[in-house]
Specification:
With 254 residues, this protein is of the alpha/beta class. It has a single domain (2-252), classed as Metallo-beta-lactamase, Chain A (4-Layer Sandwich). It is 19% helix and 25% strand. The chain is built from six helices and 14 strands. The protein has helices spanning 22-29, 58-61, 83-86, 170-179, 203-213, 225-234; strands at 2-7, 39-43, 48-53, 69-71, 95-98, 116-117, 128-130, 133-139, 147-153, 158-162, 183-187, 217-221, 242-244, 250-252. The termini are close together. The model has no long low-confidence stretch (mean pLDDT 97). It binds zinc ion (3 copies). One zinc ion binds at residues 74, 76, 142, 164.
Length: 254
């Protein structure tokens, strides 16, 4: 199973509009330092799946019929931007989009869904099989109904996708400790904060979760420009098993 990070930023992205900090100024001249909103591609032997859809140019990157399904963590705009233009596309079949059963969705996306089929929703701890992968949805702590995903392939690769969240609910943490992902991707939005943020992890909380779950490798995502700034000074002190994800980074799992 391959995972490609297509967007590793938070809602503002990097560079942040109008911001003249060092990180945003560098990202304006060096596209490799930019961060789009959350989106990733999983490729297995049998299928190509997107997890979250936060990049606007989804349609350019993925021609018709090149995606088998889309899995959404939640319906905040920075995770579904790309679906707004895509829904009015032309396609022989409806494209399945699976996510939590959030009747409000995002703006009019569920009501005017075009070529996207949102009817098959996912429920916490109800395992589902899609071709050569199995998905177990895990509740997360966020301001909107949000699911993380434990994703395993038929050939034994295990990936945990955990965005957006502040800490982890006990049941989800217990499941992951037992399940032992090869790779865990988790929301790490901010540098160390004095008070925990109610909706997102800062780097201290994200490291604590990494130590508790003990996956083979952890990738931090949903990164704010202030965290990038902090990492410039302190990034080398991170444990070896933690990597800061970057847009367009591809990794092999398992
Ligand atoms: Zn900035
Ligand atoms: Zn969110
Ligand atoms: Zn988000």
């Amino acid at each position: 199973m391959d995972l490609e990070f297509l967007g590793t930023g938070n809602c503002a992205g990097v560079p942040v509009y109008g911001c003249e900090c060092e990180i945003c100024s560098e990202a304006r001249v060096n596209p490799k330092l930019r961060r789009l909103s959350t989106c990733a591609k999983i490729a297995t032997i049998e299928q190509t799946i997107l997890i979250d859809a936060g990049i606007t140019e989804l349609g350019d990157r993925f021609p018709r019929s090149s995606i088998d399904r889309i899995i959404l963590s939640h319906y905040h705009i920075d995770h579904v931007y790309g679906l707004f233009p895509m829904r009015w596309g032309h396609c022989e079949h409806q494209l399945p989009v699976h996510g939590p059963d959030d009747k409000n969705g995002c703006d009019d996306l569920l009501k005017h869904h075009g070529i996207l089929d949102f009817s098959d929703t996912l429920a916490p701890f109800v395992r589902r099989k899609f071709a050569d992968i199995e998905i177990t949805p895990l509740p997360l702590n966020h301001s909107k109904l949000t699911l993380g995903y434990a994703i395993s392939s038929d050939n034994g690769c295990r990936l945990a996708w955990l965005a957006d969240t502040s800490g982890l609910p006990d049941h989800s943490a217990d499941f992951l400790k037992e399940w032992q992902p090869h790779v865990m991707v988790i929301d790490c939005s901010f540098p160390p904060l004095d008070c925990p943020h109610p909706n997102h992890n800062d780097i201290r909380t994200a490291i604590e979760i990494h130590e508790k779950i003990h996956p083979g490798k952890t990738y931090f995502t949903h990164i704010d420009h202030e965290l990038d700034q902090w990492l410039k000074l302190h990034g080398n002190d991170l444990p070896e098993t933690i990597t800061i994800a970057r847009d367009n980074l591809t990794i092999k799992i398992g």
